[in-house]
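INFO batch 0412 | record 1 of 1 | parsing
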Amino acid sequence: MVGKGWPMRSLLYLPLILAAALAISHPAHADQLAEVRQRGTLRWGGDQEGGGPYVYPRSDDPNRVTGFEVEIATRIAERLAVKAEFTQGDWDKLPDMLRTGKVDVIINGYELTPERLDLMDATMPYYLYRLQLLGRKGDRRHSTWDSFKAVADRAPGKIGVLTGSAAETYMRRFCNDDAGASRSVCGVIGYDGNTDTMREVETAKLDGALVDTPIAAFYASRFPGLAPVGMSVGEGYYVIYLRKRETSLLRALNAAIIVMVRTGELERIYRKYGIWDDAQQRLIEIADAGRFYGYDQAARTEVNSGAKPAQELVKTGPRERGRAVVVDYGGVLLQSAGMTVILSVLSFPLAIGLGLLVAVGRLYGAAWLKPLLSAYVEFLRGTPLMLQLYFIFFFLPEVGIRVPAFWTAILGLAVNYSAYESEIYRAGLQAVPHGQMEAALSLGMSRGLSIRRIIVPQAARIVIPPMVSDFIALFKDTSVCSVITIVELTKRFSVLSMSTQATVELMAMTGALYLLMSYPVAVLSRRLEKRLAGC
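INFO prediction complete | emitting tokens
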């Protein structure tokens, strides 16, 4: 039987506990450069889903990344006498990862903008980009920029852009220049990956795609059906972002970039990936002028280390098809499926246990406890899983509570699904005839013992089918965990699809793996139901 005194006394301490948790703050501000060197790693954030030539899976080992920014991060780390450590994150969530200390720097084609400078500090530029509009070869309807705008006898063109990028800002301004505030003269559609937009143009779902010049150059051979439309526009800079007031780290990063510019190391990297152009010569002028925050005059005087042999050009080559995709990427998809299984198998039992406690509390608990548990269930069911994961991973560090990505995924999935499991168990408990409880009490059992030995076992048989359905749903909901840097099966499919464009084959393998994971659970559930029905 539930006691009447101690729960109420415990409740009085809850405000104090919550206040103590919120009072926890970040440790005193330390020198980030010293911390990086003490740790021995420079943690840099990027998103493989953006594809080449920035950060993308290696063809010989998809578990590792390559790209010109990978090489830049490696060279900078070497000059800091540490190792570069890549951290996967969704492109638009990288500033949040930086703010909460999940990474030390962002290196992922992040453009220099006033809005970002309000939140983060930036190094000198390491690349000068422009924006290139691409259309289908032979498409006479869209042969110039203005041909994408709607006029009396012409429908508006649809242009794909990377969500949150400078390309999206530029194109939305272009499409609204002549239209005023009421309407747009062309359609701008945001995508999570650059190659998505190029593929959609190739298949005629879009009329054009606005991409950064490195992407247009790197993927030219992969998309032979596309051609440039007009001249490139909108010059800008890629910079490395870091947290505000990390002056020593900022100076060290700038010094490393300056040396790479002056020794020709950056040029060699860019030529390797086919993205060098004459505009990059201006990096030397920028370095010499010293017109950027954290400029280190001493870095300019470092002796040129001499020319190094030219590196072999990285070629994208033709798209892989059929059996080659299965052979090359089947293994890494299987490994990512293993992460999906681990997340599901660890989180669902916790969800069941917590859900059962909530259900029992709502039906048999103290009067003051029932509304709190009801609010718990409604809150979790009424807010998205992604928002809950975001809260644990990005907000809790603000009050000093840091939960690693893997355990954030386990905790988030378990807590979210506990609300649904509690409702399933509540229905199961209510389906047990009330006379069962009365009979147990009349035999001298306590209320708690009656619930454990009589009521819950009977309810468990009733709730097996809906619980299995939830477990199968959990397999698929693990894909949301990519927002907190977990690379599970769906995220791996998305990353590989962006870098290889073998979408059909990868989609078929991914679907087959999900089916192989969920179907045996359904079969086992049916057998268990039949066995229990015979009891």
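INFO post-check: Residues 1-29, 293-311 have pLDDT under 50 and may be disordered.
INFO record closed
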